[in-house]
């Protein structure tokens, strides 16, 4: 059986379950229950974000989304300002960092959300990186053996990896924060957002 099959068939199965290397970054949660994480954007988006908030435009997309995520849209972020797995992944080298340079901005926002009031998940981007690595002929990564021809398998495994933030303890190799809401709209109001004092990509 292909290694990837276990992640396609089982919701919340993780790389930690199978003894693969995972990211050891700890969640930054205050005693008041606020979770702090980071989101990169473009300079031109800042005025609108600081006035209104972060808009969830992308749908939680895969062939068979879990019931609780059906019709949800998302805003993504990182646990740390510049996660170690972006630049020195044991399986994907610095491919994650290359992708951030291509597809997301370089202005870092710091977000602190009351965990009790927002649906927050942590997903494992390793499933997406696997196919990106193969497409760019940089190696085979972990060796999930996904069919990367149309993205259906890697996106299904990615969404299957969503773990509620309250249950997350370094189970993922390439953790991505997912704040979701039903339908498009403001997922993170501006009152919870500030421009980070740390700007690793500036």
Automatic annotation (TrEMBL):
It comes from the Bacteria. This is Uncharacterized protein. It comes from Paenibacillus lactis.
């Amino acid at each position: 059986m292909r290694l990837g099959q276990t992640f396609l068939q089982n919701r919340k199965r993780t790389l930690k379950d199978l003894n693969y290397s995972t990211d050891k970054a700890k969640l930054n949660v205050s005693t008041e229950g606020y979770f702090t994480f980071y989101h990169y954007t473009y300079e031109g988006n800042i005025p609108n974000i600081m006035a209104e908030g972060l808009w969830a435009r992308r749908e939680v997309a895969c062939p068979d989304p879990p019931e609780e995520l059906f019709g949800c849209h998302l805003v993504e972020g990182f646990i740390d300002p510049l996660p170690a797995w972006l630049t020195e992944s044991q399986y994907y080298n610095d491919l994650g960092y290359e992708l951030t340079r291509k597809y997301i901005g370089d202005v870092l926002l710091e977000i602190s959300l009351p965990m009790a009031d927002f649906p927050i998940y942590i997903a494992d981007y390793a499933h997406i990186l696997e196919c990106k690595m193969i497409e760019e002929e940089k190696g085979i990564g972990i060796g999930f053996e996904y069919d990367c021809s149309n993205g259906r398998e890697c996106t299904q495994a990615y969404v299957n990896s969503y773990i509620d933030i309250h249950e997350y303890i370094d189970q993922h190799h390439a953790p991505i924060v997912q704040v979701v809401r039903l339908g498009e709209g403001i997922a993170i109001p501006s009152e919870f957002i500030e421009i980070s004092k740390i700007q690793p990509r500036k």
